[in-house]
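Record 1 of the preview.
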Amino acid sequence: MLRGFFILLSKVPWAQRVITRWGVARRAARRFVAGDTIADALQAALALNQAGMQVSLDPLGENTTHAEGAEAAAQEILTLLDSLHAHELRANVSIKLSQLGLALDENLCRQLLGKILARAGERGVFIRIDMEDASLTERTLEMFHWARQQSEGVGVVIQAYLYRSEADLMRLREVQGKVRLCKGAYREGADVAFPQKSAVNRNYDHLVKVLLESARAAGTPLLSADGRTPPLAAVATHDPARIAFAEAEMARQGLPKGSVEFQMLYGIRRDLQETLVRQGHAVRVYVPYGTHWYPYFMRRLAERPENVRFFLSNLFRK
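->
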């Protein structure tokens, strides 16, 4: 119920108007969001690189409702790509297609994505296409398959709570698509997604096995030396049991460390991130930034009771 409540709040305009006015909400969001600007994001990325971790920078924004907003979002991403090239950070970029107008005008979205892929190719930066709610899953995958024909430097996200995800993984295997596997952070109906957490966990482990088998069959390409190009398989979770399963599956399949990337979110389980680095694993931290932090922040509160306690504790601080 609590998870559903916060996900609902993430989509309610009046709640966004009210909560974003609270200074305490902005302060609490800074645990999960690096800041408002590219400079803030680069500073966070540098600190993580120095701690032995790779980074995926995410310029926040989603569900653009007009072409001007989509074009402005694309320009922000192009500027970020130039900045990453100039600073030589071990980082790639994550984008949401609804930010580029996918639900508004698919031709516009394709045009803007093409510009981003071209600039990313020039700058040597990998692009990860994030997955959004189930209403956009098919269109996102169709756009990814188009993007994969334009560039090898692009990957996508698959969400384990969707029933369709195994079939999607098998289709991605055919084009050696680079996949970030996560559980999923949106509110979906039982007609499209597993309703119980235990079922999501079981499917996540099953999909990890499928994903790693695909990586092994492709010859287990490792994380690039500059940290910008990830291997085929990225296991995105903060759940120690899921991580332990992935480690055991790597050992069973004979996959070396560095052929699978563990990915986690900025501000969550830094201790676990550091442990995996010490063990010799490739770790990438997803670092969001920007002024459109509200929906992302609400989804982080929905995911973990610890995040809600952190937020509530800040309500009473001056």
